[in-house]
Amino acid sequence: MRFSFTFLVFLFLNLGALLLGIFLMNNGPTSQWYSSLVRAPWEPAGWVFGAAWTSVMVFFSVFMTFLYQNIKLQKLIALYILHLVLNISWNYIFMNKHMILFGLLNITMLSVLMFYFFIAFKGLLKNMRFFVLPYCAWLILATSLNLYIAIFN
Question: How far apart are CA 39 and CA 2, in angstroms?
């Protein structure tokens, strides 16, 4: 019962962060600005982003549930809030304000944080830490897309 409730709380927060990010990006992906950018040839179709982010957040919610049950709350809250801020703010910075380099810095910091989650809690979570790996993999792709735009625009 405890796992289920904690999981639902993290799922609500993570999916809520995605929705807030979508709201803050305004019409970003469909804007004239974005469509005029030179973008990476490996950029997935638009629908893939929604499916991938949703899946990533489900896995990350499982990861956070296990972590929550095994770590001091203050450290977890600080790391988790940093994650939310970085995750949500990229949409506003990149898609709404068109600040490509600042967006790249933001998504790079988010990537470092996710890999920190994966590495730092190896001993504590053992194989459960692999639930954060899809997030890490997706961020490698997302960062490469942002980097490509930064280089070629």
Answer: 44
